[in-house]
Design brief:
Number of strands: 32
Strand order of the largest sheet: 1-2-25-24-23
CATH architecture of the largest domain: 6 Propeller
Helix content: under 10%
Structural class: mainly beta
Largest sheet: 5 strands, antiparallel
Shape: globular
Distance between the termini: 22 Å
CATH topology of the largest domain: Neuraminidase
Strand content: 35-45%
Radius of gyration: 21 Å
């Protein structure tokens, strides 16, 4: 999927010198606006964030600005892992596994052998990695092949972090925390002290780790998970991803494009609300694609220059011959992000398999994208 979304400058909160105790800062790359579900920093300056609709963002200045990368899929992405500046892996919906060897300039698909959702991935070197979700997968050859492992739990696992070839931690639903010391051959349960869903985890060494999850949950351990203590994030947003480069410096990402940054291990947290109004029109690739029987089309309406606060928007579906099939939107819209469902029908009948086009028009802006219906 080629997505031409104009990247806003990252907004970063500058706090007054009096508030010296604040250690978490709100960051937000616009206008992508998609939920960000995974993040990985390999240094204090270079990192990647992944999310819905195939979103991948890269920063080389510690999150001051983020650049979008094109990956060729609209599948939701939930986890990402890099071992150096060039080599990384992202995972997501429908068993999606993507691999890059050039820092994300290009990504290639790998076969996972599953259609289960993969929520996270952790590599300790070029060859050895673990992906988790509705299953646990392990590779020892850089993702060329993946083998299933047994977790010993029926709970979904949403996050995983390995510090070396053998030692790793996985987190999941209902406060699940699992620990392995033999590369995932066996896993032992740890007590998290919460029933909230834990959606990601990051360890920088055998002892120091942070887990994040639903309702702004953040947990911290300094003894390898024997004990976990709750930290206040200052937000009730779901936090989907977390990455620490050392015991002090970390980044958490989540709902509505949330990005939080800490420089002292997250002792305290602050959330600063910023103006997130889109400044440009965006038409996203439909998801899923191909689809049957329905698919979702997402678009962003800019702040209009006509002074009314609204823009007239038309979104229509056409067949391959240019014939109009359906009108999905035909009304004034305020600036913001919208989505609409297309159910694979014309006004009169069910549509056959084939290629269809959807076109968004608002003022002088128009864009057309292709989608495929498979019966």
């Amino acid at each position: 999927m080629k997505r031409s979304f104009l990247l806003f400058a990252l907004l970063f909160s500058l706090l007054s010198s009096q508030i010296v105790f604040t250690q978490w800062f709100w960051q937000n790359p616009l206008p992508q606006g998609n939920f960000l579900r995974g993040v990985k920093f390999i240094s204090s300056t270079t990192g990647w964030a992944v999310g819905d609709w195939g979103t991948i963002l890269r920063t080389t200045n510690g999150g001051t600005t983020w650049q979008a990368q094109s990956i060729g899929t609209a599948n939701h992405l939930s986890g990402v892992s890099f071992t150096d500046l060039n080599n990384g892996t992202a995972v997501g919906g429908y068993g999606t596994i993507l691999r890059t060897t050039n820092g994300g300039t290009t990504w290639t698909s790998q076969s996972s052998g599953t259609t289960s959702y993969l929520y996270d991935v952790s590599f300790t070197d070029l060859n050895n990695g673990t992906a988790v979700g509705g299953t646990i997968l392990r590779t020892t050859n850089g993702g060329t092949t993946w083998q299933a492992q047994s977790s010993g739990t029926t709970n979904y696992l949403f996050g995983v972090s390995f510090t070396d070839l053998n030692n790793g931690t996985a987190v999941g639903s209902w406060g699940t925390i699992l620990r392995t010391t033999n590369g995932g051959t066996t896993w032992q349960a740890q007590s998290s002290g919460t029933t909230n869903g834990l959606l990601d985890v990051s360890f920088t060494d055998l002892n120091n780790g942070t887990a994040v999850g639903s309702w702004g949950t953040i947990l911290r351990t300094t003894n390898g998970g024997t004990n976990w203590t709750s930290q206040s994030s200052g937000t009730t947003n779901y936090l989907y991803g977390v990455s620490f480069t050392d015991a002090n410096n970390g980044t958490a990402v989540g709902h509505d494009g949330t990005i939080l940054r800490t420089t002292n291990g997250g002792v305290t947290f602050v959330e600063e609300k910023l103006d997130l109004s889109p400044v440009n029109f965006i038409l996203y690739q439909n998801y899923p694609n191909p689809f049957n029987p329905s698919t979702t089309i997402k678009y962003v309406v800019s702040s209009p220059a006509n002074g009314t606060g609204k823009q007239y928007v038309v979104l229509k579906v056409y067949n391959i011959l240019g014939g109009e099939i359906s009108t999905l939107v035909n009304e004034e819209k305020s600036h913001g992000e919208y989505e609409v469902e297309f159910v694979g029908r014309s006004e009169a009948s069910t549509l056959p398999s084939g290629i269809y086009f959807y076109r968004l028009q608002a003022g002088d802006y128009f864009e057309t994208k292709k989608m495929i219906l498979l019966r």
